[in-house]
Amino acid sequence: MFEALNERLTGVFDRITGRGALSEKDVEEALREVRVALLEADVALPVVKDFIARAKTAATGEDVIRAVKPADQVIKIVYDGLVDMLGGEEPVPLNTNATPPAVVLMAGLQGSGKTTTSAKLALRLSKFDKKKVMMASLDTRRPAAMEQLATLGQQIEVATLPIVAGESAVQITRRALQSAKLQGFDVLILDTAGRITLDEGLMNEVAEVAQIAKPVETLLVADSLTGQDAVRTAAAFHERLPLTGLVLTRADGDGRGGAMLSMRAVTGLPIKYLGAGEKVDALDVFDARRVAGRILGQGDIVALVEKAAGELDQAKAEKMARKLAKGQFDLDDLAGQLNQMKKMGGLQGIMGLLPGVAKLKNQMAENNVSDKMIDRQLAVINSMTKAERKKPDLLNASRKKRVAKGAGVEVQDINRLLKQHRQMADMVKSLSKGGGKNLQKMASMMGG
Ligand code: GDP
């Protein structure tokens, strides 16, 4: 998978690598080629558009690191965009911590790999997580499917619910729940019936089973080789069933990769596992960074740029610390803080890192600082002149009016921002009197 895409992207990067400087036009040209490559890989158009827009912003933004070759920077931007497209940096673990039995409901079309994936998951949970797992097939119309699950269960030494002919899916669900509870199973995997195509009867049945079984995880299994069809299937299931995650099978196949790259953005659901073969142990925990790395094949460069970015942040943080230690904090510093907050996943992210700075947190809460407001505040600061940013006292009524107009906000928004800045500046001053140690620590955490 991703071979063609990898080849195309490598070509794009080869063309810009080796050039000293890149003009804005060069970057745009490269991104245009990346766009074509993604579309050819069958990535959904809105997803591609969003990706390119973000990449452009990143490439022309203020976070450009001068210590790194421009082409390397473009590679890193594309890498970051892919990680983002695939759902972020951290794999999302499967939740099995419910009152036993934690029910995992498997849904999907027939042939998607649902039964095989149920067994793969059962093996992983029993072998690695030491859970006591039971599986049950709800495919009442295809006795072969029930037997297939039983055979797989024997093979991986995981219990399956004994097959009773003539029961409905709902009856089997009730029996499975009771049996798993009585026998002390931690996890119950329900392998629902699949059809060749989406149909109403199937959806109703799965929805009813879900209501009874109250699964902690409802996973949709989709065949990555079917491209955008897999994405549409996932979206259609998600309309009827509160899915919690996706499993993409046949990642070992030679698909173009469009399904995997579009799934997350289109459905909003995390990809949790990849099926990577027919064997029962061929199930990988989905890792966006690893997949993005595989698509680009530029691991060294990504690592290099990450290191340079880290050093730059460190240098900025140290500079910030020196300023703070002197009790200085102007509106440019505030803008730096706001940008840093955005980078670190918004206010919640940064506050999580600053357990000791409750005062700041409260102050911000008082002032109604929400993540959405950060952009507005930055717009206000950007509408000021350099002198105004250094010396906010310059902002008299007419200047405030001008800034408000420029940023598309009201004068009272300017006043609110100035008040917030004043409070922060005061705090910086009082902290700096109390010794630079705390400040140094705070600044290095917040960057600047
Ligand atoms: P179900 O109808 O959705 O339950 O599909 P099955 O689990 O019976 O799988 C259909 C076929 O796909 C079987 O031959 C599986 O061995 C195969 N299969 C399932 N997952 C994968 C995978 O990740 N990679 C490959 N290569 N084959 C798979």
UniProtKB/TrEMBL annotation:
<dbReference type="GO" id="GO:0005525">
    <property type="term" value="F:GTP binding"/>
</dbReference>
<dbReference type="InterPro" id="IPR000897">
    <property type="entry name" value="SRP54_GTPase_dom"/>
</dbReference>
<keyword id="KW-0733">Signal recognition particle</keyword>
<dbReference type="GO" id="GO:0006614">
    <property type="term" value="P:SRP-dependent cotranslational protein targeting to membrane"/>
</dbReference>
<dbReference type="InterPro" id="IPR013822">
    <property type="entry name" value="Signal_recog_particl_SRP54_hlx"/>
</dbReference>
<keyword id="KW-0687">Ribonucleoprotein</keyword>
<keyword id="KW-0342">GTP-binding</keyword>
<dbReference type="GO" id="GO:0003924">
    <property type="term" value="F:GTPase activity"/>
</dbReference>
<feature type="binding site">
    <location>
        <begin position="108"/>
        <end position="115"/>
    </location>
    <ligand>
        <name>GTP</name>
    </ligand>
</feature>
<dbReference type="Pfam" id="PF00448">
    <property type="entry name" value="SRP54"/>
</dbReference>
<dbReference type="GO" id="GO:0005886">
    <property type="term" value="C:plasma membrane"/>
</dbReference>
<dbReference type="InterPro" id="IPR004125">
    <property type="entry name" value="Signal_recog_particle_SRP54_M"/>
</dbReference>
<dbReference type="InterPro" id="IPR022941">
    <property type="entry name" value="SRP54"/>
</dbReference>
<keyword id="KW-0963">Cytoplasm</keyword>
<keyword id="KW-0547">Nucleotide-binding</keyword>
<dbReference type="InterPro" id="IPR036891">
    <property type="entry name" value="Signal_recog_part_SRP54_M_sf"/>
</dbReference>
<keyword id="KW-0694">RNA-binding</keyword>
<dbReference type="Pfam" id="PF02881">
    <property type="entry name" value="SRP54_N"/>
</dbReference>
<dbReference type="InterPro" id="IPR036225">
    <property type="entry name" value="SRP/SRP_N"/>
</dbReference>
<protein>
    <recommendedName>
        <fullName>Signal recognition particle protein</fullName>
        <ecNumber>3.6.5.4</ecNumber>
    </recommendedName>
</protein>
<keyword id="KW-0378">Hydrolase</keyword>
<comment type="function">
    <text>Involved in targeting and insertion of nascent membrane proteins into the cytoplasmic membrane. Binds to the hydrophobic signal sequence of the ribosome-nascent chain (RNC) as it emerges from the ribosomes. The SRP-RNC complex is then targeted to the cytoplasmic membrane where it interacts with the SRP receptor FtsY. Interaction with FtsY leads to the transfer of the RNC complex to the Sec translocase for insertion into the membrane, the hydrolysis of GTP by both Ffh and FtsY, and the dissociation of the SRP-FtsY complex into the individual components.</text>
</comment>
<dbReference type="GO" id="GO:0048500">
    <property type="term" value="C:signal recognition particle"/>
</dbReference>
<feature type="binding site">
    <location>
        <begin position="191"/>
        <end position="195"/>
    </location>
    <ligand>
        <name>GTP</name>
    </ligand>
</feature>
<comment type="subunit">
    <text>Part of the signal recognition particle protein translocation system, which is composed of SRP and FtsY. SRP is a ribonucleoprotein composed of Ffh and a 4.5S RNA molecule.</text>
</comment>
<dbReference type="InterPro" id="IPR004780">
    <property type="entry name" value="SRP"/>
</dbReference>
<dbReference type="Pfam" id="PF02978">
    <property type="entry name" value="SRP_SPB"/>
</dbReference>
<comment type="similarity">
    <text>Belongs to the GTP-binding SRP family. SRP54 subfamily.</text>
</comment>
<dbReference type="GO" id="GO:0008312">
    <property type="term" value="F:7S RNA binding"/>
</dbReference>
<dbReference type="InterPro" id="IPR003593">
    <property type="entry name" value="AAA+_ATPase"/>
</dbReference>
<feature type="binding site">
    <location>
        <begin position="249"/>
        <end position="252"/>
    </location>
    <ligand>
        <name>GTP</name>
    </ligand>
</feature>
<dbReference type="InterPro" id="IPR042101">
    <property type="entry name" value="SRP54_N_sf"/>
</dbReference>
<feature type="domain" description="SRP54-type proteins GTP-binding">
    <location>
        <begin position="270"/>
        <end position="283"/>
    </location>
</feature>
<dbReference type="InterPro" id="IPR027417">
    <property type="entry name" value="P-loop_NTPase"/>
</dbReference>
